[in-house]
Amino acid sequence: MDSREHLVAGIIRDAFLLLAALAILVLLLRARLTPFKKKLEARRAQEREARRRRDLLEERVRMHLLPALIGQGFQPAPPVVHSGPVDRDYLRCFPSWGKLIRAREPVVDLVEIQFSSHGRAAFRINACAVPKDGMMTAGGHKTAEKIIELGVTDLETHARPWLRPGLRALGLEPLGAWFSVRYWPLRAPTQADYDKLALQVVGLLPEIELALREGKLGPHMRRMDASLFKPLPPEILERIERSAR
User: Fold this and answer.
1) Residue 152: CB partners within 8 Å, gap ≥ 6?
2) Distance from C-alpha of 92 to C-alpha of 83, rounded to nearest angstrom
């Protein structure tokens, strides 16, 4: 075999080794990427399912709960005009259609439907009997109009009252407050499940009514720190009015 043949054989051998090395590298990369792709596909499937559940919940709450509240004399609150950009997650948690008011002397009843953050399919109801002269909050005195605009409330629903004694003892009472469809392994929630959940909350509206009108709390109602939400004494209100003039 002359030198030329040796050179050709060497080139062929080197090319074969190079192709073999590339083939092994491709196989190794594929082996590493396959679990990642599977995880990515699984995550996207979970996100799609979460969006489906959240959309179903919002749809059924809007279908069943809003008409029930309107039947009790509530009406949509004036739309809030935001001066700057607003977080999209915040808008999904507090949709404009979920805030309703009802005027009755000497207060304005405020009810707001709040959905859980991060797209979770859960919600609760916040409420407040707002004095027409305004009230003191953690941020100082607010007019009734400002309280309604900000959605300041001192009442909220609690979905699982049987858990409250234990949670209260542990200092964790707000946990368990959200209404949601119970999770069952290997069974995705259906529209009928969310219909049932929304109608269940409709059945609790008398407790909200009693809390607003008489201040009495049923098992599904919780009052936040009352010291942060209270009407101003008449003499303080008179002083504020004089300074405003």
Assistant:
1) 128, 137, 142, 229
2) 18
Q: CA 156, CA 112: separation in Å to the nearest integer?
A: 9
Which residues are 171's β-sheet partners?
Answer: none
Please count the other Cβ atoms lying within 10 Å of the Cβ belonging to residue 195.
15
Tokens linked to 232 = 């101003």
Which has the minimum average pLDDT: 9-23, 43-57, 69-83?
Answer: 9-23
220 neighbors 158 (Cβ within 8 angstroms): yes
**pLDDT greater at residue 101 or residue 235:** 101
Sign of CA dihedral 10, 14, 16, 17: positive
Mean pLDDT of the chain, nearest integer: 83
Give pLDDT tens digits for 86-110.
788 888 899 999 999 999 989 999 9
The Cα 154–Cα 222 span in angstroms is 9
Burial 20-53 (b: 16+ CB within 10 A, else e): eeeeeeeeeeeeeeeeeeeeeeeeeeeeeeeeeb
Prediction pTM value: 0.74
Kindly tell me if the per-residue pLDDT of 227 is higher than 50.
no
